[in-house]
Design goal:
By secondary structure, the protein is mainly alpha-helical. The protein is 64% helix and 2% strand.
Length: 360
């Protein structure tokens, strides 16, 4: 919205600053951060009054989690509210990719909100049935995949870009849509599975989103793409503003989610943020790089899949408990120890993902 102030610029004045994505990204970050600090505690107070006993705790979960009983959930409302308001304020609202990531984020946030509400109102861990959540998620992803394909340059439509290999594209044809849908829904659910300890999911999400924000800004500039040998996707640079809002809102949330958490993100936040990561990857044609940058989320999801399949086949477990962060809890690792080590892994994977931009 504030971008339109640049129309009043005659060059060299303060209005000219609003032309620059980097300036507006800084504004979006600060706006979202202040939003989190202002509305964080009031939101927690409302959630605590409305939810009573807070998020239900799994009876078969780690024993240390019983002490968290009474902690409210749906804290993702704070992050989503911060990033949406800051994006609408600072981004160019005529950019289709901005609306794409906002659509996916809000769509998955609604699914997560319904799931959280069902859990809290019933007082148990059973929310919206998994099949219903998946169906709704794929419906949102279908719209997003078609939307992205329509707005990609003609030479990139239905194409899969391979990292490291310069100018290599794989034509997926009609299979691009289901592939993009899988990326978005898979990312949403992988982040959702990771969100099991105080602060565990939000920092890796911010790290991954920052990395994807750099990628979005890079592939949206012809000078950068020519130098690095990347595929140019006009308009994706504006996604950096959305990412800046996400990081600002994420830090505001982390202030209250740091151990011991005053509020949980809930499915409202984890599904929304995961879906956003998937949508950014699809928009920038870096779907495979997301698998590297978000490798921590991939491992968390795979640990659940392996556990379920192996148990059905043999009646035995590979891990003491899945997702894998609970495995380490069962092994006696302290919660902060797991969280910080997983943050370090997420940062390493992000650096590897960024390296793919130059390795050609």
């Amino acid at each position: 919205m504030l971008y339109w102030l640049s129309l009043f610029s005659e060059g060299g004045d303060i209005f000219n600053l609003f032309r620059y994505i980097t300036f507006r990204a800084g504004g979006a970050f600060l706006t979202a951060l202040v939003f989190g600090f202002i509305f964080g505690q009031p939101l927690i107070n409302v959630l605590r009054r409305r939810q009573g006993k807070g998020q239900p705790i799994r009876a078969d979960g780690p024993e240390t989690h019983f002490a968290k009983a009474g902690t409210p959930t749906m804290g993702g409302l704070l992050i989503v509210g911060a990033l949406v308001s800051s994006t609408l304020l600072w981004a160019r609202l005529d950019n289709p990719f901005v609306w794409l990531v906002l659509f996916v984020t809000l769509g998955f946030a609604l699914i997560g909100f319904a799931d959280d509400y069902a859990k809290v109102s019933r007082g148990n861990v059973k929310g919206v049935p998994g099949r219903v959540r998946l169906l709704l998620g794929f419906a949102i992803a279908l719209v997003a995949a078609v939307w992205a394909g329509y707005n990609h340059p003609a030479g990139l439509q239905n194409q899969l870009a391979l990292p490291v290999f310069k100018d290599v594209l794989v034509n997926l044809g009609v299979f691009f849509i289901p592939f993009a849908m899988f990326v978005i829904v898979g990312a949403a659910n992988a982040v959702n599975l990771t969100d099991g300890l105080d602060g565990l999911a939000i920092m890796p999400v911010m790290i991954a989103s920052a990395t994807l924000g750099v990628i979005a800004y890079t592939v949206g500039r012809t000078d950068f793409t020519e130098y690095l040998g990347l595929h140019y996707v006009p308009g994706t640079g504006e996604i950096l503003i959305f990412v800046a809002g996400l990081i600002g809102g994420g830090l505001g949330f982390l202030w209250y989610n740091a151990p011991p958490a005053a509020v949980f993100m809930g499915d409202t936040g984890s599904l929304a943020l995961g879906g956003a990561l998937g949508a950014i990857a699809v928009a920038t044609k870096h779907e495979l790089v997301l698998g590297i940058v978000g490798g921590l989320f991939v491992v968390e999801a795979l640990s659940v899949i392996i556990q379920v399949l192996y148990f059905k086949r043999t009646g035995k477990r590979v891990f003491l408990m899945a997702p894998i962060h609970h495995h380490y809890e069962k092994k006696g690792w302290a919660e902060p120890q797991i969280v910080i080590r997983f943050w370090i892994i997420a940062l390493i994977l992000a650096m590897i993902g960024l390296a793919t931009l130059k390795l050609r």
